[in-house]
């Protein structure tokens, strides 16, 4: 059973590229265009890893992260934060909230793929 | 042979030297380089105490009364050694109040009483006149004796020669001229006469050296030292008797000591040199032993000269008062005799000059001017410059004083010894002592007491000393001295009320001082002082605390009525507040607030401290001092204090203003700082936001570029799609950068605007044409509904079009997907050009209607799959419209959707539009 990556991103073109990359790496890809949708999707079908943009409509990435981490049943879910704002402040805040990794836009496609692969580990069947 | 002319030449030359010294001293003083600013000159100037009475008279006294010459010098020594603090206090008071004479001092202490000043002056003039006469007598006698050189012959009684040929008269005139030259150069009497002081100090040296020279000559030249001299004297029974059996006894010594103790302070000339001419209070520290030392040295050779004289002229044909001169003459010591004469001249001129100056100041300031001002002589009070008049009065006074002295000398002085004349003067000025010293230590002393004491003392002095002297000189019937007036024995001047068995002087001193002190004390106790007296009294008695730290702890030994204190407080802090604080005070100390009527010292001090807070310590002390003795302060003082208070208030008001200004400035700075911080945060936000906006398209571009690069075997359709995204995002990035720069330019005010008169219709038409391509492939209708004549606006044509294109593009982007409708309305609204762009999209929620015109702020409602704008279009539109003086806003469109509208000021009114003539075209 392949593992699932939820892409939470409001920029259509970036969603396109991330979907392409994750699918190419062998993950199943789900997409949410805002924070609320992301939470709802997690509730209906939890993903193994979330690629989470911070600047999102409705609920921003920090809130989504906090929500995920407040629910013990989602403890195993990995969270990779994506942001176009490269401040240290944002990075620290993300890591404090329980993110597993923090990637700055524009990102290197190889980096983001290997980061996701590292976090999810070798595929177990 | 010493010719009279040669003596005159020497004497005149000496006087000229004195004047040269005085002139030099004044010049140095004017240049600010004083030559008298040291304790040695100060002490030497005080040696003006030693007059010709000392120079000639001491020897005369010793020749007849043995050690009797001494008490006159013991008194001042005691005063200086024991009572230095008294002198210091007098000096301090005089400096604080600019006091210029002893008359001024006493008048000032007792409420600036003109009557007292006048009385003191009169007493001083009458008392000092004999003293001046004494100097004239000494100079003329010594001259007349010396002129006979080498014969020792006593001169004739001068009353037998015509006045104009009388040496003493000529001497008096000469001295008057010198006193005028020395003493009336300046108008301000409180200014120091530095030249005079220098000359006096020089004279003190000359007379001392001359006297020592004669003494040394007698002791070591004529005899073989002190031992030989005294041994010789002991063999002469008449001389040794002087020292073994003093028939006068020592009973009068206390009187003499007391007299001279008072004289050293009360003599006008001593007051002048020790107090008025004092330039530095600290000089007193050395002077208190330097001056007694001078007196001691002076007295070393008095006895030897007296003995030498007695041994030399055993027949008594030579007046002992001339021994200093006649002994060298008899020994044919021409130079020494001349030197002795100069020494005596020094002693005499010094005294006369200083006394004349001091008396003239008193006469003009305390006697003549008050009277002239009261009589308003020749409209004096209105005349501005009185300096010329004052100088004339002083000069006239000097001449008058010397003529008085001469008159006294001519009519009375001949028959009396030098010392006796001097003691009469001492006794007169000693009358000042009670009022003076009492006034410095007893706050309760009053003007009435001082007047009473002085009058009584002076009257008794007159009666028991001066009048008998007149009688003995033949100017009054001697009967009244011997048998009492009208034969009343009890009133005999030398045995008043039956007091017998005392020497005349002690007798006179006893009665005059007893009456003086008694009158002073009784008068003070029985009378109530006026306001000024109280204040002056407090200032005099407490001079140290007033001139020093004003805020020092005060110990009010006196008491005050509580009601007075309360009234005083009420005048400065208000009645209610006064009630409150006094009530508080009473409660704190467990007193019944209504009960105590007499305030204790603690309460008085409490009130003083309270007042000090409102009107300052000095004023508070004076105010409380006035009440603490149960007295209402005179209107003059209140005005003075109020004036001072208002100055303090004015000052603190200005301070307050300043601190208010400072506070305002600080607030402005704080505001500016806040604003800067805000701007800084906004800048940070902006950079962060711009960075985010730029990174977003960059992210797509980079990731698709890498995907394309990493996957060369992508199928063609996918590759084309990815490439199209890269191109589109690149365009977006370019647009974004352009708009950011444009906006930054507008905000910084560096945009070039080409403002011209513009017909909006042309611009709208062009904008519609430019946006028509946006409609391609979409079901959107774009309509224009404009008045036929649109008013012109003053605008930059291209920028105006940019706004319209922007609004249309926005509307196209957000309008309904299936049946999109965008309409442009143009016309006139409320005297302005109006343009609206309406769509049938979702509209803008009321909360977002303001912020969507901010940079990078799009509606919070996400629009899935709609192309993203830069977030700067509306912000730029607003900048442009506002630059044109217009307004832009968004509202609900009729039915559904948003209406973006703006208005602009009209530059040229359109022709009246024909009704119904509206263009309505569909594109």
Indicate the CATH architecture of chain A.
3-Layer(aba) Sandwich
- Give the overall silhouette of chain B: elongated
Per CATH, the superfamily of chain A is: Response regulator
Count of domain modules of chain B: 4
Q: What's the domain count of chain A?
A: 1
Largest sheet descriptor of chain A: 5 strands, parallel
Class by helix and strand content of chain A?
Answer: alpha/beta
Biggest chain contact? A-B, 26 and 25 residues
Radius of gyration of chain A: 13 Å
Question: Whole-number average pLDDT of chain B?
Answer: 78
Helix count, DSSP H or I runs of 4 or more residues of chain B? 34
**Percentage of residues in DSSP E strands of chain B:** 5-15%
Which outline of chain A best applies? Answer: globular
Question: What name does CATH use for the topology of chain A?
Answer: Rossmann fold
Taking all Cα atoms into account, the compactness measure Rg of chain B is 54 Å
Name the poorly predicted regions of chain A: none
- Describe the strand arrangement of the main beta sheet of chain A, using strand numbers: 2-1-3-4-5
Low-confidence stretches of chain B: 546-558, 613-619, 630-635, 912-923
Extended strand count of chain B:
10
